[in-house]
């Protein structure tokens, strides 16, 4: 069965081109074959990640009334609190058994509640730097100019999402899970998760495999816009969070997702270097329009 590879990003940071090309090839293979990878030496400190998880827990421990005052309002802003079952990632199933807080850069810069912890903004910036490094590796792997992708993400139109999957007090509805089967919408996603588990990834053969926490790594996956950009050379892989069938059922699960999106006015059209083996599959689309359409279908 196909495994999710573990890739050492420290080697890519070396100045010699041979080291960079070797890692870019590993990243290319991961994105092409499964769309997921674990990255070691991400450059984000363990202490900072722990601080954000701690702040996340304190936010979700607020009363429901307090959280509802910060409620997510619409797809255009896509910020605020999302209650349990509010989101339905798989449109054919009941709402997801999770709650979330979405943040964008503007909200973090003003440090308005609930984003009034400076560590969250520092973390957002650290995730942005890591995403840019991955995008540089993508450019090298796809025979593009080094900053082809990063300049198309320079408005930092990214979303930081804190997630909480509460313990189950009552049996779920038929077909209900913690996060329904879905692919992500943007370029790439960075995922930090605790050790409760439940994340599963679908291989190209249609098998579901576990993506457990591996200490000192970040999970990275490619999203829909990167799949469109690369003409299916990189795949946007379906994944889900299942309900455990052991004592983990009684525990909260926490994760942090950083959704990296291109600038809204970026045209996502098939790259010339990805047309060697097949004609363009998808018509061009603006990144902002695509994101809005997917959010409208989800809520």
From TrEMBL:
Pathway: Antibiotic biosynthesis
Residue ranges occupied by any Fe2OG dioxygenase domain in the UniProt entry: 156-262
Keywords, ordered alphabetically: Iron, Metal-binding, Oxidoreductase
One Gene Ontology term of the molecular function aspect: oxidoreductase activity
A Pfam family recorded for this sequence: 2OG-FeII_Oxy
Signal peptide: none
Coiled coil: none
Protein name in the entry: 2OG-Fe(II) oxygenase
């Amino acid at each position: 069965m196909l495994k999710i590879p573990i890739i050492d990003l420290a080697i890519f940071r070396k100045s010699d081109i041979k080291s960079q090309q070797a890692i870019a090839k590993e990243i290319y293979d991961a994105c092409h074959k499964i769309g997921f990878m674990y990255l070691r030496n991400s450059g984000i400190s363990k202490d900072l990640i722990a601080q954000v998880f701690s702040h996340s827990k304190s936010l979700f421990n607020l009363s429901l009334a307090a959280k509802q005052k910060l409620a997510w309002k619409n797809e255009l802003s896509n910020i605020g609190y999302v209650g349990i079952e509010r989101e339905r990632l798989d449109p054919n199933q009941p709402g997801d058994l999770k709650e979330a807080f979405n943040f964008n850069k503007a909200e973090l810069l003003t440090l308005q509640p609930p984003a009034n912890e400076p560590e969250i903004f520092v973390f957002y910036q650290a995730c942005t730097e890591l995403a840019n490094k991955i995008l540089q590796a993508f450019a090298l792997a796809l025979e593009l100019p080094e900053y082809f992708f990063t300049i198309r993400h320079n408005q930092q139109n990214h979303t930081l999402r804190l997630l909480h999957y509460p313990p189950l007090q009552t049996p779920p509805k038929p077909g209900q899970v913690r996060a329904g089967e879905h692919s992500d919408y943007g370029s790439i996603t960075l995922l930090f998760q605790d050790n409760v588990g439940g994340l599963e990834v679908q291989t190209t053969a249609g098998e579901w495999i576990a993506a457990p926490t591996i200490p000192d790594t970040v999970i990275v996956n490619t999203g829909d816009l990167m799949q469109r950009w690369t003409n299916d050379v990189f795949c946007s892989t379906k994944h889900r969070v299942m309900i455990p069938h052991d004592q983990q059922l009684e525990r909260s699960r926490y994760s942090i997702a950083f959704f990296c999106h291109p600038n809204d006015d970026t045209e996502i059209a098939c790259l010339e270097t990805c047309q060697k083996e097949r004609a363009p599959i998808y018509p061009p689309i603006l990144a902002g329009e695509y994101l809005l359409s997917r959010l409208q279908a989800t809520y």
